[in-house]
Amino acid sequence: MGEIEDFLKVMKEGRHASPHTLRAYRTDLFGFWAWFAKDRTDIPLADVKLFHLRAYLGHLQESGLARSTITRQASALRTFFSWAYREGRIAENPAALLRAKSGPRAIPRVLDTEEVERLLAQPAGGDFLDTRDKAILELLYSTGARVSEAVGLRLPDVDLAQGLVRLLGKGRKERLSPLGPFAIDALENYLPLRSLRASTKAEDRLFLNRFGAPLTTRSVGRMLEKRLLQAGLPPDVTPHTLRHSFATHLLRGGAGLRAVQELLGHASVNTTQIYTRISPEHLRDVYRRHHPRARDDD
Asked: Is 23 considered catalytic here?
């Protein structure tokens, strides 16, 4: 569909949307259009009405998709139709009043500190892949970086002497994140092997695959699956779980919400607040340790 392709071009060239964001927009918008238009090719964009959009979200809900996925798709539709209206492609914006049904947000899956230690201990060898995997995992947990931010790192982005890394987040917003001593050690061990492995395709990208070319987010996911199996951890852990664990462990350790927001690169503190929803087990532990009537040592 021409309007969707034009929108994606604007998002890429005008707003510098990341490849991940562009893929999500493409999937969501063409998914809606395939549902709406069926096999017809002559339906104008102006035929889409609010009730069509609401029916589509209902269809997604009945299909069993996660609330977060439906919310993302509603956001994509609102953004696309708002652009089409501003550009004069349609006379009315059918998505102006579109809202996904709200509900309680699930607490993100996190690893406890013992599970993190087990995972980070797995790449124990001295060859290129073990050393690289160790550096990636340590960096993800040390900085809370998104996996797309990690694979996008370039050599000048890392300052081991200062213990800092420059991350390029959503909307091409830059932020500086501290590197812990374990991450620094892992990167210092990896960099000499990276130099030996780098091919002409590597440019100055930090993390490379076995052929010396830039690593992809999918490759990191496959690597994590292997390391989870070695550590005896659940297979539903993803690279983003390390980001969730980073934030949760900081907050439980006493870090302020605003500081964690800055470290994660969240535009709104509301996004960060989900990590303050502490598990019942943690609440019970806090109660036992601090409430005078919970102790039985009298």
From this structure: no
* pLDDT digit string, tens, across residues 42-69: 889 999 999 999 999 988 888 888 888 8
What is the H or E stretch that residue 159 is in?
strand 158-159
Considering the domain delimited by 2-86, tell me its CATH architecture. Answer: Orthogonal Bundle (1.10)
* Residue 104 pLDDT exceeds 60: no
Which one is catalytic: 132, 227, 243, 244? 243
Catalytic residue among 67, 89, 170, 252: 170
Stretch 105-115: mean pLDDT, rounded? Answer: 79
Domain positions in the chain are 2-86, 113-282
Give the DSSP H or E segment for 206. Answer: none
Of the residues 52, 72, 89, 266, only one is catalytic, namely 266
User: Is residue 240 flagged as an active site residue?
Assistant: yes
Q: Is the pLDDT of residue 279 over 60?
A: no
Q: What is the pLDDT of residue 196?
A: 94
Q: Which of 146, 227, 244, 249 is catalytic?
A: 146
Whole-number pLDDT of residue 298? 44
146 among known catalytic residues = yes
> What is the DSSP secondary structure assignment for residue 154, as one 8-state letter?
B
d(CA 183, CA 143): 9
Which CATH superfamily does the domain covering 113-282 fall into? Intergrase catalytic core (1.10.443.10)
Q: What is the DSSP string of 164-203?
A: EEEEE-GGG-EEEEE--HHHHHHHHHHHHHHHHH--TT-T
118 is catalytic: no
Q: Which helix (H) or strand (E) holds 273?
A: none
User: Does residue 170 have an active-site annotation?
Assistant: yes
Q: What is the pTM of this model?
A: 0.65
Separation of alpha carbons 141 and 243, rounded Å: 6
Q: Is 275 a catalytic residue?
A: yes
125 pLDDT above the threshold of 70 = yes
214: DSSP letter: B
Contact partners, residue 110, CB within 8 Å, separation at least 6: 241, 244, 245, 248, 249
